[in-house]
Amino acid sequence: MSNKALEICTLFAGPSLQGIDSQLLCSDGLVIRPPIKRGDVERLVAQSSPSNLAIVDGVFHAHPAVGHAEILDALAAGWRIWGLSSMGAIRACEMDTLGMTGFGEVYRKFASDPDMSDDEVTLIHQSQEPFLSLSEPLIHIRKFLSEWVAVQIITPEQEQHLLHYLKNMWYGHRTLNCLKDALQALPVAAEIIDSALANFSIYRIKNLDLIDFLKLQPWTRTVK
């Protein structure tokens, strides 16, 4: 891989970009593309010299999801590929022994818990830029509820009841308004609920993983 290629990273992302400082997206050599779908990696490899690729968000309904075979072909061709936050974290967990590199808390959760399902990171979002999220991934809500248990706002039993309720719901219906309605059924003051939901971005680990990735810029590091 040439030094010039080392400086380029094509990053497939959409809703995980929400709320990210635009300055982080202005790095030289960083190319932002929409959420990945089947065939995107194959086309990129056919059109470009081996370089760096980061898979963050992906689609799976309107188009087939990014395939394992095309990722393997890209790795074999000399590309460095990271997976994080959402679809990327799932693929990295599945392929981290085959050369793909996982990054961030979401990836670590999938790698350490065989019972983690794809549904944890799934959401609905706008079909066009800026791909704003229209629902909240369960993994974010799980993080939030875990924190509330830790500070004893809710009990572990209440946490499990809420998670069971949300887990059995279609992911598109998991919104902050839905969560608020569920929390209001508990003996928790309204102002505590409102304050927590107004600052919910601190629990959005998909977005936080991407922020860390953009700050660290691992694609600029020399290949060993």
What would your notes on this structure say?
The structure is a single chain. This protein has a 5-stranded parallel sheet with strand order 2-1-3-4-5, sandwiched between helices. It has 10 helices and 5 strands; from the N terminus they run αββαβαβαβαααααα. By secondary structure, it is of the alpha/beta class. The N and C termini lie close together (11 Å).
Query: How large, in whole angstroms, is the Cα Rg?
Result: 18 Å
How many strands in all? 5
- Distance from N terminus to C terminus (CA atoms, Å) equals 11 Å
Inertia-based shape: elongated
Largest sheet: 5 strands, parallel
**Can you tell me the residue ranges where pLDDT is under 50 for at least 5 consecutive residues?**
none
Task: Record the strand order, biggest sheet.
Answer: 2-1-3-4-5
Q: Can you give the helix content as a percent range?
A: 40-55%
Chain-averaged pLDDT: 92
Count of helical stretches: 10
The SSE order reads: HEEHEHEHEHHHHHH
Strand content: 5-15%
What class would the helix/strand composition place it in?
Answer: alpha/beta
Number of domains: 1
Write the layout of secondary structure elements.
Layout (H helix, E strand, L loop, with lengths): L2 H4 L2 E4 L17 E4 L6 H8 L4 E4 L12 H9 L3 E5 L2 H9 L5 E3 H9 L25 H13 L5 H12 L8 H8 L6 H9 L6 H12 L8
Parallel strand pairs: 1-2, 1-3, 3-4, 4-5
Helix pairs in contact: 4-5, 6-7
Describe what is shown at a glance.
The protein is of the alpha/beta class. It is built from ten helices and five strands. The mean pLDDT is about 90.
Keywords:
alpha/beta, 5 strands, 224 residues, single chain, 5-stranded parallel sheet
